[in-house]
Protein backbone atom coordinates (compact mmCIF):
# COMPACT_ATOMS: atom_id res chain seq x y z
CA UNK A 1 0.00 0.00 0.00
CA UNK A 2 0.99 3.64 -0.26
CA UNK A 3 2.08 5.31 2.97
CA UNK A 4 -0.20 7.90 4.53
CA UNK A 5 2.17 10.67 3.45
CA UNK A 6 2.19 9.34 -0.12
CA UNK A 7 -1.60 9.25 -0.14
CA UNK A 8 -1.66 12.88 0.99
CA UNK A 9 0.73 13.83 -1.82
CA UNK A 10 -1.26 11.88 -4.41
CA UNK A 11 -4.49 13.54 -3.25
CA UNK A 12 -2.88 16.93 -3.93
CA UNK A 13 -2.02 15.77 -7.46
CA UNK A 14 -5.61 14.73 -8.17
CA UNK A 15 -7.04 18.15 -9.01
CA UNK A 16 -8.99 19.43 -12.04
CA UNK A 17 -6.06 21.60 -13.10
CA UNK A 18 -3.88 18.53 -13.68
CA UNK A 19 -4.03 16.43 -16.83
CA UNK A 20 -4.24 12.75 -15.94
CA UNK A 21 -3.34 9.77 -18.11
CA UNK A 22 -3.71 6.07 -17.36
CA UNK A 23 -1.40 3.63 -19.19
CA UNK A 24 -1.35 -0.15 -19.20
CA UNK A 25 0.81 -2.82 -20.78
CA UNK A 26 1.23 -4.09 -24.33
CA UNK A 27 -1.40 -6.68 -25.33
CA UNK A 28 -3.90 -5.52 -22.69
CA UNK A 29 -5.89 -8.26 -20.93
CA UNK A 30 -8.98 -8.18 -18.75
CA UNK A 31 -7.18 -6.91 -15.66
CA UNK A 32 -5.31 -4.23 -17.61
CA UNK A 33 -8.46 -2.87 -19.23
CA UNK A 34 -10.65 -3.40 -16.17
CA UNK A 35 -8.29 -1.65 -13.76
CA UNK A 36 -7.68 1.24 -16.18
CA UNK A 37 -11.36 1.86 -16.88
CA UNK A 38 -12.26 1.32 -13.23
CA UNK A 39 -9.78 4.01 -12.21
CA UNK A 40 -11.00 6.33 -14.99
CA UNK A 41 -14.59 6.05 -13.77
CA UNK A 42 -13.49 6.59 -10.17
CA UNK A 43 -11.61 9.76 -11.10
CA UNK A 44 -14.70 10.86 -13.01
CA UNK A 45 -16.71 10.47 -9.79
CA UNK A 46 -14.17 12.78 -8.16
CA UNK A 47 -14.83 15.37 -10.86
CA UNK A 48 -11.62 14.61 -12.77
CA UNK A 49 -11.01 13.67 -16.39
CA UNK A 50 -8.46 11.07 -17.43
CA UNK A 51 -7.37 9.52 -20.73
CA UNK A 52 -6.81 5.77 -20.86
CA UNK A 53 -4.04 4.80 -23.29
CA UNK A 54 -3.25 1.25 -24.36
CA UNK A 55 -0.22 0.48 -26.56
CA UNK A 56 -2.16 -1.77 -28.96
CA UNK A 57 -5.65 -3.10 -29.49
CA UNK A 58 -7.38 -5.37 -27.00
CA UNK A 59 -9.81 -8.29 -27.48
CA UNK A 60 -13.39 -7.64 -28.58
CA UNK A 61 -14.76 -9.52 -25.58
CA UNK A 62 -13.54 -6.66 -23.35
CA UNK A 63 -15.08 -3.85 -25.39
CA UNK A 64 -18.49 -4.06 -23.71
CA UNK A 65 -17.15 -2.30 -20.61
CA UNK A 66 -18.34 1.27 -19.94
CA UNK A 67 -16.38 3.79 -22.06
CA UNK A 68 -14.13 1.09 -23.54
CA UNK A 69 -14.64 2.77 -26.92
CA UNK A 70 -13.04 5.94 -25.60
CA UNK A 71 -9.74 4.20 -24.87
CA UNK A 72 -6.92 5.65 -26.97
CA UNK A 73 -5.12 2.85 -28.83
CA UNK A 74 -1.61 4.18 -29.49
CA UNK A 75 -1.06 1.95 -32.52
CA UNK A 76 -4.05 3.59 -34.21
CA UNK A 77 -3.88 7.12 -32.77
CA UNK A 78 -0.18 7.73 -32.36
CA UNK A 79 -0.30 11.53 -32.37
CA UNK A 80 -3.17 11.75 -29.88
CA UNK A 81 -1.54 9.24 -27.52
CA UNK A 82 1.89 10.86 -27.73
CA UNK A 83 0.55 14.35 -27.05
CA UNK A 84 -1.55 13.14 -24.11
CA UNK A 85 1.48 11.51 -22.48
CA UNK A 86 3.73 14.50 -23.20
CA UNK A 87 1.25 16.98 -21.71
CA UNK A 88 0.25 14.86 -18.71
CA UNK A 89 0.83 16.09 -15.17
CA UNK A 90 0.01 12.71 -13.62
CA UNK A 91 0.40 9.26 -15.16
CA UNK A 92 -0.99 6.13 -13.55
CA UNK A 93 1.03 3.05 -14.58
CA UNK A 94 -1.28 0.04 -14.17
CA UNK A 95 -0.69 -3.71 -14.34
CA UNK A 96 2.94 -3.63 -15.49
CA UNK A 97 6.20 -3.19 -13.64
CA UNK A 98 8.59 -1.53 -16.12
CA UNK A 99 8.28 1.06 -18.88
CA UNK A 100 9.36 -1.31 -21.63
CA UNK A 101 6.33 -3.52 -20.87
CA UNK A 102 4.21 -0.85 -22.53
CA UNK A 103 5.86 -1.54 -25.87
CA UNK A 104 8.36 0.05 -28.23
CA UNK A 105 6.08 3.00 -28.96
CA UNK A 106 4.55 3.96 -25.60
CA UNK A 107 7.48 2.81 -23.45
CA UNK A 108 9.92 5.56 -24.54
CA UNK A 109 7.18 8.19 -24.25
CA UNK A 110 6.49 7.04 -20.70
CA UNK A 111 10.18 7.19 -19.76
CA UNK A 112 10.55 10.74 -21.09
CA UNK A 113 7.28 12.09 -19.68
CA UNK A 114 7.62 14.92 -17.17
CA UNK A 115 4.52 13.82 -15.26
CA UNK A 116 4.46 12.38 -11.75
CA UNK A 117 4.19 8.62 -12.24
CA UNK A 118 2.11 6.42 -9.95
CA UNK A 119 2.63 2.66 -10.26
CA UNK A 120 -0.09 0.25 -9.13
CA UNK A 121 0.86 -3.31 -10.03
CA UNK A 122 1.16 -6.88 -8.74
CA UNK A 123 4.10 -8.19 -10.79
CA UNK A 124 7.52 -8.91 -9.32
CA UNK A 125 10.53 -6.58 -9.37
CA UNK A 126 8.95 -3.21 -10.25
CA UNK A 127 11.03 -0.37 -11.63
CA UNK A 128 11.34 2.89 -9.69
CA UNK A 129 8.53 5.43 -10.17
CA UNK A 130 7.54 8.51 -8.17
CA UNK A 131 4.97 6.53 -6.21
CA UNK A 132 4.89 2.73 -6.07
CA UNK A 133 2.15 0.44 -4.79
CA UNK A 134 3.43 -3.06 -5.59
CA UNK A 135 2.08 -6.23 -4.00
CA UNK A 136 2.68 -9.63 -5.62
CA UNK A 137 0.28 -11.32 -3.20
CA UNK A 138 -2.75 -9.52 -4.65
CA UNK A 139 -4.28 -11.53 -7.53
CA UNK A 140 -5.29 -8.59 -9.72
CA UNK A 141 -4.41 -4.95 -10.24
CA UNK A 142 -8.17 -4.27 -10.29
CA UNK A 143 -8.29 -5.38 -6.65
CA UNK A 144 -5.41 -2.99 -5.91
CA UNK A 145 -7.41 -0.14 -7.46
CA UNK A 146 -10.17 -0.93 -4.98
CA UNK A 147 -7.63 -0.83 -2.14
CA UNK A 148 -6.40 2.51 -3.49
CA UNK A 149 -9.97 3.85 -3.41
CA UNK A 150 -10.22 2.63 0.20
CA UNK A 151 -6.97 4.41 1.10
CA UNK A 152 -8.45 7.62 -0.27
CA UNK A 153 -11.54 7.01 1.92
CA UNK A 154 -13.76 7.26 -1.16
CA UNK A 155 -15.52 3.88 -1.24
CA UNK A 156 -18.82 5.76 -1.29
CA UNK A 157 -17.97 6.94 -4.82
CA UNK A 158 -17.89 3.40 -6.23
CA UNK A 159 -20.77 3.14 -8.70
CA UNK A 160 -22.01 0.56 -11.21
CA UNK A 161 -19.47 1.50 -13.91
CA UNK A 162 -16.52 1.22 -11.53
CA UNK A 163 -17.88 -2.03 -10.09
CA UNK A 164 -18.34 -3.66 -13.50
CA UNK A 165 -14.82 -2.79 -14.64
CA UNK A 166 -13.07 -3.87 -11.44
CA UNK A 167 -15.12 -7.07 -11.19
CA UNK A 168 -14.11 -7.96 -14.77
CA UNK A 169 -10.43 -7.38 -14.01
CA UNK A 170 -10.52 -9.47 -10.84
CA UNK A 171 -12.55 -12.26 -12.43
CA UNK A 172 -10.27 -12.63 -15.45
CA UNK A 173 -6.95 -12.41 -13.60
CA UNK A 174 -8.03 -14.97 -11.00
CA UNK A 175 -9.24 -17.40 -13.67
CA UNK A 176 -12.79 -17.11 -12.39
CA UNK A 177 -11.60 -16.99 -8.74
CA UNK A 178 -9.76 -20.30 -9.08
CA UNK A 179 -6.12 -19.30 -8.67
CA UNK A 180 -4.31 -19.75 -5.37
CA UNK A 181 -3.78 -16.03 -4.83
CA UNK A 182 -7.55 -15.49 -4.64
CA UNK A 183 -8.13 -14.61 -0.99
CA UNK A 184 -10.98 -14.00 1.42
CA UNK A 185 -10.28 -10.29 0.93
CA UNK A 186 -10.74 -10.75 -2.82
CA UNK A 187 -14.16 -12.30 -2.26
CA UNK A 188 -15.18 -9.56 0.17
CA UNK A 189 -14.26 -6.92 -2.41
CA UNK A 190 -16.15 -8.81 -5.12
CA UNK A 191 -19.19 -8.93 -2.83
CA UNK A 192 -18.94 -5.17 -2.39
CA UNK A 193 -18.72 -4.70 -6.16
CA UNK A 194 -21.84 -6.80 -6.65
CA UNK A 195 -23.66 -4.66 -4.09
CA UNK A 196 -22.54 -1.60 -6.06
CA UNK A 197 -24.13 -2.93 -9.26
CA UNK A 198 -21.77 -5.46 -10.86
CA UNK A 199 -23.82 -8.30 -12.40
CA UNK A 200 -21.75 -11.52 -12.32
CA UNK A 201 -23.94 -13.35 -14.84
CA UNK A 202 -23.85 -10.49 -17.34
CA UNK A 203 -20.12 -9.89 -16.93
CA UNK A 204 -19.28 -13.59 -17.29
CA UNK A 205 -21.47 -13.90 -20.38
CA UNK A 206 -20.05 -10.77 -22.05
CA UNK A 207 -16.45 -11.67 -21.25
CA UNK A 208 -16.24 -15.44 -21.57
CA UNK A 209 -19.27 -16.71 -23.49
CA UNK A 210 -17.91 -15.23 -26.71
CA UNK A 211 -16.66 -18.15 -28.77
CA UNK A 212 -16.29 -17.67 -32.49
CA UNK A 213 -16.03 -20.39 -35.11
CA UNK A 214 -12.35 -19.53 -35.61
CA UNK A 215 -11.64 -19.86 -31.90
CA UNK A 216 -13.35 -23.25 -31.68
CA UNK A 217 -11.48 -24.52 -34.75
CA UNK A 218 -8.16 -23.44 -33.21
CA UNK A 219 -9.09 -25.01 -29.89
CA UNK A 220 -10.01 -28.30 -31.56
CA UNK A 221 -6.68 -28.31 -33.39
CA UNK A 222 -4.58 -27.55 -30.33
CA UNK A 223 -6.34 -30.14 -28.19
CA UNK A 224 -5.94 -32.81 -30.85
CA UNK A 225 -2.14 -32.72 -30.52
CA UNK A 226 -1.54 -31.77 -26.92
CA UNK A 227 1.65 -33.41 -25.60
CA UNK A 228 2.48 -34.40 -22.03
CA UNK A 229 6.13 -34.80 -20.95
CA UNK A 230 8.23 -35.09 -17.78
CA UNK A 231 6.32 -38.09 -16.46
CA UNK A 232 2.97 -36.44 -17.00
CA UNK A 233 3.84 -33.25 -15.14
CA UNK A 234 4.11 -30.87 -18.10
CA UNK A 235 1.63 -30.25 -20.94
CA UNK A 236 2.67 -28.61 -24.22
CA UNK A 237 0.33 -26.84 -26.65
CA UNK A 238 1.29 -24.96 -29.80
CA UNK A 239 0.03 -23.15 -32.90
CA UNK A 240 1.76 -22.03 -36.08
CA UNK A 241 1.21 -18.82 -37.99
CA UNK A 242 -0.31 -20.50 -41.02
CA UNK A 243 -2.85 -22.23 -38.77
CA UNK A 244 -3.86 -18.91 -37.25
CA UNK A 245 -4.37 -17.49 -40.72
CA UNK A 246 -6.22 -20.57 -41.96
CA UNK A 247 -8.87 -20.29 -39.28
CA UNK A 248 -9.22 -16.50 -39.37
CA UNK A 249 -7.51 -15.74 -36.07
CA UNK A 250 -8.70 -12.61 -34.26
CA UNK A 251 -7.10 -10.96 -31.24
CA UNK A 252 -8.16 -12.79 -28.10
CA UNK A 253 -9.04 -16.08 -29.83
CA UNK A 254 -6.38 -18.04 -27.94
CA UNK A 255 -7.15 -16.51 -24.54
CA UNK A 256 -7.21 -19.26 -21.93
CA UNK A 257 -5.93 -22.05 -24.19
CA UNK A 258 -2.95 -22.70 -21.92
CA UNK A 259 -5.31 -23.55 -19.05
CA UNK A 260 -6.53 -26.66 -20.89
CA UNK A 261 -3.05 -28.13 -20.46
CA UNK A 262 -3.12 -27.42 -16.75
CA UNK A 263 -6.53 -29.09 -16.42
CA UNK A 264 -5.04 -32.51 -17.24
CA UNK A 265 -4.88 -34.73 -14.18
CA UNK A 266 -1.34 -34.87 -12.78
CA UNK A 267 0.06 -31.87 -14.64
CA UNK A 268 1.86 -29.14 -12.73
CA UNK A 269 2.92 -26.94 -15.64
CA UNK A 270 1.31 -26.02 -18.97
CA UNK A 271 3.15 -24.23 -21.77
CA UNK A 272 1.51 -22.70 -24.85
CA UNK A 273 3.73 -21.70 -27.79
CA UNK A 274 2.40 -19.58 -30.65
CA UNK A 275 4.13 -18.03 -33.63
CA UNK A 276 3.53 -14.31 -33.83
CA UNK A 277 1.21 -13.44 -36.68
CA UNK A 278 3.59 -10.90 -38.22
CA UNK A 279 7.08 -11.12 -36.68
CA UNK A 280 9.56 -13.98 -36.34
CA UNK A 281 9.31 -14.81 -32.67
CA UNK A 282 7.38 -17.19 -30.44
CA UNK A 283 4.92 -15.94 -27.85
CA UNK A 284 4.84 -18.18 -24.79
CA UNK A 285 2.33 -18.59 -21.96
CA UNK A 286 3.15 -20.59 -18.84
CA UNK A 287 0.76 -21.71 -16.09
CA UNK A 288 1.50 -23.79 -13.00
CA UNK A 289 0.00 -25.23 -9.85
CA UNK A 290 0.97 -24.93 -6.19
CA UNK A 291 4.57 -23.78 -5.62
CA UNK A 292 5.94 -24.36 -9.12
CA UNK A 293 7.42 -20.97 -10.06
CA UNK A 294 7.00 -20.34 -13.79
CA UNK A 295 7.89 -16.69 -13.28
CA UNK A 296 11.49 -17.53 -12.43
CA UNK A 297 11.58 -20.24 -15.09
CA UNK A 298 10.42 -17.79 -17.76
CA UNK A 299 12.87 -15.11 -16.61
CA UNK A 300 15.73 -17.59 -16.61
CA UNK A 301 15.19 -19.17 -20.01
CA UNK A 302 12.57 -17.35 -22.10
CA UNK A 303 13.01 -13.58 -21.72
CA UNK A 304 9.81 -13.20 -19.74
CA UNK A 305 8.27 -13.13 -16.32
CA UNK A 306 5.02 -12.55 -14.49
CA UNK A 307 3.68 -14.35 -11.44
CA UNK A 308 4.59 -17.58 -9.66
CA UNK A 309 1.73 -19.47 -11.32
CA UNK A 310 1.26 -17.42 -14.49
CA UNK A 311 3.97 -15.99 -16.72
CA UNK A 312 4.79 -15.18 -20.30
CA UNK A 313 7.86 -15.21 -22.50
CA UNK A 314 9.27 -14.47 -25.92
CA UNK A 315 11.74 -16.56 -27.91
CA UNK A 316 13.53 -15.72 -31.12
CA UNK A 317 13.80 -19.24 -32.59
CA UNK A 318 11.41 -21.33 -34.67
CA UNK A 319 8.54 -22.98 -32.89
CA UNK A 320 10.12 -26.41 -33.35
CA UNK A 321 13.42 -25.21 -31.86
CA UNK A 322 11.60 -23.46 -29.04
CA UNK A 323 9.73 -26.59 -28.02
CA UNK A 324 12.93 -28.66 -28.14
CA UNK A 325 14.70 -26.11 -25.93
CA UNK A 326 11.75 -26.03 -23.55
CA UNK A 327 11.78 -29.81 -23.16
CA UNK A 328 15.49 -29.71 -22.36
CA UNK A 329 15.11 -26.88 -19.84
CA UNK A 330 12.10 -28.37 -18.08
CA UNK A 331 14.01 -31.59 -17.41
CA UNK A 332 16.55 -29.56 -15.45
CA UNK A 333 13.86 -28.28 -13.10
CA UNK A 334 13.12 -30.13 -9.87
CA UNK A 335 9.39 -30.46 -9.30
From TrEMBL:
Keywords: Hydrolase. Residues 19-170 form the DDH domain. Gene3D superfamilies: 3.10.310.30, inorganic pyrophosphatase (n-terminal core). Its EC number is 3.1.-.-. InterPro entries: DDH_dom (IPR001667), DHH_sf (IPR038763), DHHA1_dom (IPR003156), Oligoribo/pAp-PDE_c-di-AMP_PDE (IPR051319). It is an enzyme of class 3 (hydrolase). The keyword Hydrolase applies. GO terms for molecular function: hydrolase activity; nucleic acid binding. Residues 233-332 form the DHHA1 domain. It holds the Pfam family DHH. The keyword Hydrolase applies. This is Bifunctional oligoribonuclease and PAP phosphatase NrnA. The lineage of its organism: Bacteria, Pseudomonadati, Bacteroidota, Flavobacteriia, Flavobacteriales.
Amino acid sequence: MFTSSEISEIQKLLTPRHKIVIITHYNPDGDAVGSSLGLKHFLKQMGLEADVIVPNDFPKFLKWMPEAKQIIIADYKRKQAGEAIYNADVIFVLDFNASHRSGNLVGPWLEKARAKKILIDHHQQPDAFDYVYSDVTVPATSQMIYHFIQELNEENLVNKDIAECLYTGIMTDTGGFRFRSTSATTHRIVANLIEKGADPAMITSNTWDTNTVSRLHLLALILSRIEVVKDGKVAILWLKREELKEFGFQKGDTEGFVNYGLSIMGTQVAAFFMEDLYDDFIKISFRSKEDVDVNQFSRKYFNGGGHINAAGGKYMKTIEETIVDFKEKIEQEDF
